Amino acid sequence: MDNSDIQLKKGNGRGCRYALWSVGILLLLLIGGLLYLLLDELQHSRQQARFFSDAARDASFQVKAGPSQAIRFPTSGGPYDQRLGYTAMPGYLQRLQARGYAIASQAELSDGMLALADHGVTAPLLPLGLFLPYHEKDQTGLTLTDGYGQTIYQSRTPQRVYADFNALPSLLVGGLLYIENRTLLEKDSPQRNPAVDWSRFSKALVDKALHLFDSGYRAAGASTLATQIEKYRHSPAGRTSSDQEKLRQMLSASVRAYLDGEDTTAARRRLVVKYLNTVPLAARAGFGEVSGIGDGMWAWYGRDFAQVNRALTGASVPVAERAVVFKEALSLMIAQRSPSIFLNGDMKVLEAMTDAYLRMMARDKLIPPALRDAALRVSLRQQRERVRLPVVAVVAQKGVNAVRIKLAGLLGVRRMYDLDRLDLAASSTLDLTLQQQVTAELLRLRDPEYARAANLNNEYLLQQGSPQGVTYSFTLIERTPTGNKVRVQADNFAQPFDINEGAKLDLGSTAKLRTLVSYLMVVHELHQQYAALGSEQLAAIRPSASESVLRRWAIDYLVQATDSSLTAMLEAALERTYSASPGESFFTAGGLHTFNNFDENDDSKTLTVREATRRSVNLVYIRLMRDIARYYMQPAAASGETADEDDDTTRREYLQRFADREGRTFLAGFYNKYRHKSAEEIDALLVARARQSPKKLAVIFRSIRPEAGLDAFTAFLARHLDVRQQPDAKTLARLYDELGPQRFNLNDRGYLAGVHPLELWLVAYLHQHPDADWSELVRASTQQRQEVYQWLLNSKNRAGQASRIRAIKEIDAFKQIHKGWKRLGYPFDALVPSYATALGASADRPASLAELMGILSNDGVRLPTVYLDKLHFAAGTPYETSLTQTPAKGERVLPAEVAQVVRRALAEVVELGTARRVAGAFDLADGTRIPVGGKTGTGDHRFKVFARGGALLSERVVSRAGAFAFYIGDRYFGTLIAYVAGPQAGDYRFTSALPVQVLKILAPTLRQRLELKPG
Hints:
This protein has 1015 residues and is α+β, with helices and mostly antiparallel strands. Helices cover 50% and strands 12% of the residues. The model has no long low-confidence stretch (mean pLDDT 89).
C-alpha cells in the first residue's frame, strides 16, 4: 500500500470523526434546546397559554328567547352546583312547566363550550368532559322582588365576602400563599398556568410511584388553589375520587384560568379572592354550612367582618388584637384540609399546626416576631368557645314568608335553608308598598288609643277585651289573565305561624256562604233534571212520603213558572221561606240538638233565604242544610221519582255500616285507654271497670286468657278479690269450666262480665299481640264489630233501625256535600256530618274562603292562585334560564248563573245586612260606585262537656274569630280575620262587625293603590 492510500484513509477517518462530532453537537444542541423550551414552558407556560386560551376563546354562551337547543347542566353533583341549584335545574324546570310556567329565555352554548363539556381538550385519545368554563359567582342566593321590582327578600351565601383583590388584607394574602402556593402571584411569568405547580406535581408523581412499593408511604398532594377550587366546587362530594378526576380538575382549572386571554395575572389574583371567599370550613350547629374566611371568622370565632379587616389592616391596631385575629384566620386556612376534624374537635392538632406556621413565617421574615409571640399566646379553643349562636329573626312580613313557602313547593325543595341558597331571582305578585302600609295599620290597631280613635270600642267590636290581644290577618288578591295574584298577605302576629293558610279556624257564619252555594247547586241539578220536561210530564211525577222538599219544590215551580230559565229558578229559590224559630230540636250527627239565633228578634220570624243571608240568621240555615242533606239522602230514580231504598237488603247494608262505624268509635276509645300499658296495668284497668264478683272476674279471665290453666285462673281471682269473696277450690273449678269462652258468644261474655264486648275483645287481643297498632286492630276486629251488633241486625224494632239507617244516610249525604265544597277549594278532607256545619262546625281557612270568593267573582271559573309570576335562574352563567307564568287555563267549577246570583246576594249583605259598615267605603272621589260584597262570620269555639240530661258540666274557651270574605269591584277579593286564641278569648265579645270595621279603616289606603275604576 503506497503512502497516498495511507494518507487517504487517515483523511477519511478524520472526516468521520468530524461528522460524528458534528452530529453529537447538533444532538446536544437539540436536546439542550428542547430542555430549555421545556424548562421555559414549565416556568412561563407559553404554549399552555396559547393552547388553553384558544380552547377558552371558543367556549361561550348567549341567552336567547325560548328554550335552548344547546345547554348542559352539571351532572357530577359538586357541592357548589348542588348548593346553587344548577344540578337540580332540569327537575325544577320540569316541575315549573307542569305548573303553568314557560321558558322565556335560556342560555345557548357555543359548539366550543359543548365540546369542552362533552369530551374536553384531550379527545379523541382520552375523552374527558370538563366543568364548564365561565366566571363563577363567589356569592349568590335567593332574591325576591314584588310586582313593581322592589326587593322584598334577599339571602346571600356566603354572607361576608371580599369584592376584589384590593380589598384583601395583605396579611391574609401572605398567610394563604405561604401555606398553599408561594409563587402564585409572581410577576415575571404573566402567562403562567396557575392550575399546575410543576415542582409539586413532579414530587407528587415520585411519591405516588414510591407508594406503589410502600403502601405506608404518604404521598404529598399536588393541588394548587385553582384545582382545589375546582375540586370543592364541582367534583362529586368535593373530593378527588380518582386520577381521572384529578386530571379533570387540572384541565378545567387551566381552561378557566385563560378565559380572558393568555395573560393570567388578573386570573391568579381572582383565585386568591375566590379561595378566601368560598373555601369550605365545615358546618357548625346554629350556623349551617360555613364557607369563606369572612363567614368562617363569624361562625367559628364570633368575629364581625369589619372587625377582622380593621384588625388586619389598621395602622393603630394593638399587636395583641391583630395577633388574635391573624391566628384565627390562619387556623382556618390550615383547617380547610380537613375542616370537620380540625374545627369540631378539641383543636389541639390545629393549634399546634397554626403555631408551627407562625414560627416559620416569622423565621422567613413574613411577620414580625412581636406578632408571632403575641399570636402564640392565643388559645384557639377558648376563642371558639366564646361564640354565641345567632338569633334567628322571624320573617316579619308574612306575605314574604308565604311566597318562600310557595316557591319551595313549586320547586320541590323541602327546606327553606336550601331554598335560600339557590342562584335564583323570583318576581312575586306582592305589592311591597301596600303590604307595608297594611301591616303598619294592623300593628297600630293594637294600640288602645288608636283603636279608640278608629271607633273599635263600639258595640260588637272591642267593648270587652284589650285591642292588644287581637290578631288581624288580611289577604287581598287580584284576578289577572295569568291567575289570581296575591297582592297583600299581612297580619300583626309576631310569630312565624301563618293564620291565613296554617290554621283550622271556626269562622262561624262564613260557612253559610258555602251552604248557600250548595243549595243553589242542588237547584241547578234539579233544573237540569226537570226543566226540559213539559207541564204534563212534571205533573205526572207523584209526591211520595220520602221525597225531599227541594225536589218537590223544583217540580212544582217548573209546573207553574212562566220563566223556566236557570237564573229565574235560582232567584226564586232565594225567595223560599223558612222559620227562624229555635223551638225545634234537630236529630243530626246521631243525636238531638238545638240551636239559637244571634239576634233574638229573629226568633219569631219567617224569612226568605235571601233575607236570612243578609242578616245571617242561624235557624234558617240549619233548616236549609237539613233540606240539602235530605235531598242527597233521597236520590231520584231514573223515572224522576224518589228511589226506593227501604228493601231488606239495603236496610241490612246500612245497619252493617252503622255497626262498623260505631264499633270503630268504641274501639278507638278502648285503644286509647289501654295503649302503652303493661299486661298487669291492662288487667287492673279492666277489672276496675267491672263490679268485683267471682263470676264477673271469671268471665273476664276466661275471655282475655282463654288458654291459661286453673292455677293461673285461681291466682287471678285471688289477686283481684277481697279475701272474704274468695271461692273455695270446688267453686273455682266449676267457674273455670262453666264460663269458658267457647260456651258464650262475645256479646254474652260482655254482658256477664259487665263490660263492653269490644273492650273485652281488645284486651284479649292485646295480650296476644302487645305491639298491635290501630290499623291492625281495625283489621282484626272486622268480624267482632259486626258480631256485637247482631241484636240490631236481627231486631224487630224497625223504628230503632230506622234512626241508625238515617244516621248513615246523613253521613253519606255530607260526603256528597263535601265533594261540592272540595271542588270549590274547601281545605279539609271531611265535613262534620251535622246541620251545624252550616254555622261553621266543620271549620275553614281564610285562604280557602278567598279562593271561593275568587270563583264567585269570576262567574264560576277557578283560576290558580299565583304568588310568583317570573323566575330567573343562574343569571350570567351557562345555565341561565328565565320562566314566566303563562295565561291561566281556568276551570269551570260553578255555572255562571249560580255565581252571579250568589254575588248579588253578597252585595246585599254589604248594602243592607251584617256588613253594611263598609258600604260605600271604596267609592271613588268622582262618585263612581264600586260594588262590594261579602259574607261575615263569627266563631266562638268552646269545648263543652254535658251530662246525660243535657246539663253543662264544664266549658273551656278555645278561640274567638270574626271573619269577612269579600270582593271589591270586578277584580279584587280576599279575607279579613280578627282572631284571639286561648283562654283569653273568653274576655272578648266581638263579632264579624270587627273585621268589617277594620276593612273600612284600610279602605283609604287600599283605594290609593288599587285600580278600581271599571274597565
